[in-house]
Hints:
Elements: E1 5-8, H1 17-23, H2 28-41, E2 50-54, E3 57-64, E4 67-77, E5 80-89, H3 94-98
Parallel strand pairs: 1-5
Antiparallel strand pairs: 2-3, 3-4, 4-5
Protein name: Phage-related protein
Organism: Carnobacterium viridans
Amino acid sequence: MKKYNFDVYEKENGEAPFLEYLDSLDVKAKVLRAITIVEDFGVHSPPGYIDHLDDGIYELRVKFSSNIFRCLYFHFSHNKYIITWFHETNTKNSFKRNY
């Protein structure tokens, strides 16, 4: 049984910005694999995959080459989590400045 169950935020018009951005990436499979790992292991995911940022906001990180792909998500109910935002950086600190 999965520890986490991720879904994505959808706007009222049905657009899903996370999925649209994900579809444009060459590393889509790597991001989806990281999501699956976190769904399976939850808080016991391997180090470097998830981090609690602030006030119920969490970050799922995917490293690829010199870039880090970051997905923001929050707990919705039971084991359901919603991915709301996606950001690509090539430095560790640029995300926190934009947050």
